[in-house]
Design goal:
single chain; alpha/beta; Rossmann fold; 8-stranded mixed sheet; 14% strand; binds magnesium ion
């Protein structure tokens, strides 16, 4: 494995040159400067699409970037035209690599690493009891998954001089699961008072809660419910002292009509009938939609983190060309600072 949970080089890779040591949002570095980015959001909002676009954006800036997909639903792989969802980092573009984290496999690997005798580990791993245990142990799968992400983040190059990965983007599970995943390190640290598990959890917690190292991006669509859910997620993450760096408003309808256009359309509407009126109504409906989306964007800005806006791609985001376009839009929004609102 390229980055296993078994003992390996796990020196403290420099996480960032940023000066911030506490979570004072106004001086937190922008998302672009944080090495480890978690992309969160409700199912279907565009987490995988945004993760891929972010990865492409970082790789374009010359960062050696690793895209990590948790839970192996291989959406990311398909987006990037990868044949399979490999658990080994595989090159998917210039400076861009992708790997899948399979929580079951990672847990098995971790427990094998903890058991002293290989033969016993093999027998255990194949047994039903073992599976039942790994399913039932509270937080074990989450802890191992997080540990795996962390081990990629602190992995050093063979010369030990620099981190293996300049940027890591995690396509996280849907919000509730993802927040629970991120909270695991602090929880395990509390439960395991002292001892190696406590220490390991503390090392992981330090990295993922440090705003110079880690940035969480919460993705939403420009609608009332998704935006209010994203705001709730931001609050919950903040309450857990997890570093939210940006909100990403995905699928914004491009604004076609200016205020003057709308006024002209409204006056023209009174003068026409039939299909012409239908066309004007359609145009006005479109402009009302854009106005609603702008309102939702302002609401999201109330969350106190920079809002990165991504357009709705008319031809869909399921193609590489679409991702390249979104990557350019992401780049424009990336350097905004947290806490300016
Ligand atoms: N900006 C966008 N423009 C057009 N289609 C998009 C955009 N972002 C996402 N999509 C589409 O929305 C669907 C859900 O996106 P996906 O990234 O799989 O969401 P998630 O990972 O959050 O479940 C996909 O069909 C994707 O192509
Ligand atoms: Mg997805």
């Amino acid at each position: 494995m390229a980055a296993s949970n078994a003992p390996r080089q796990r020196g403290a890779a420099p996480v960032s040159s940023g000066p911030t040591l506490t979570s004072q949002h106004a001086i937190d570095p922008p998302l672009a400067e944080r090495r480890l980015c978690f992309v969160l959001g409700k199912g279907g909002v565009g987490k995988s699409t945004v993760s891929a676009a972010l990865g492409i954006a970082y790789a374009r800036q010359g960062h050696r970037t690793l895209l990590l997909e948790v839970a192996g639903r291989d959406r990311l792989s398909r987006l990037l035209d990868r044949a399979d969802a490999s658990t080994e980092p595989t090159v998917v573009g210039e400076g861009l690599y992708a790997a899948t984290i399979d929580p079951e496999e990672a847990t098995e690997e971790y427990l094998r690493g903890q058991l002293p005798v290989r033969a016993i580990a093999d027998v255990l791993a194949g047994s039903k009891t073992f599976r039942t245990f790994t399913q039932a142990a509270p937080g074990l799968k989450e802890m191992v998954t997080l540990g795996k992400i962390w081990s990629y983040a602190v992995e050093l190059r063979p010369d030990q001089e620099a981190p293996e990965w300049d940027r890591l983007v995690v396509d996280a599970p849907a919000t509730g699961h993802a927040v629970a995943l991120l909270e695991t390190a602090a929880n395990v640290r509390e439960i395991a008072q002292g001892g190696p598990i406590h220490e390991q959890a503390e090392r992981i917690r330090e990295v993922i809660s440090h705003p110079a190292a880690t940035g969480i991006a919460v993705v939403a669509r420009p609608d009332e419910l998704p935006v209010s859910e994203a705001l709730d997620a931001i609050d919950r993450l903040r309450a857990a002292e997890l570093p939210v760096a940006a909100a990403i408003l995905n699928c914004i309808t491009p604004r076609r009509f200016s205020d003057e256009d709308v006024a002209a359309l409204e006056s023209a509407r009174a003068l026409v009938n039939g299909s012409e009126r239908g066309a004007i109504d359609a145009a006005l409906a479109e402009s009302r939609r854009a106005a609603r989306e702008a309102r939702h964007a302002r609401d999201l800005e109330g969350g106190g983190v920079p809002v990165i806006r991504l357009p709705l791609l008319a031809r869909g985001a399921g193609r590489l060309a679409g991702l390249e376009e979104l990557a350019s839009a992401v780049t424009d929004g990336l350097s905004q600072r947290a806490g300016v609102a």
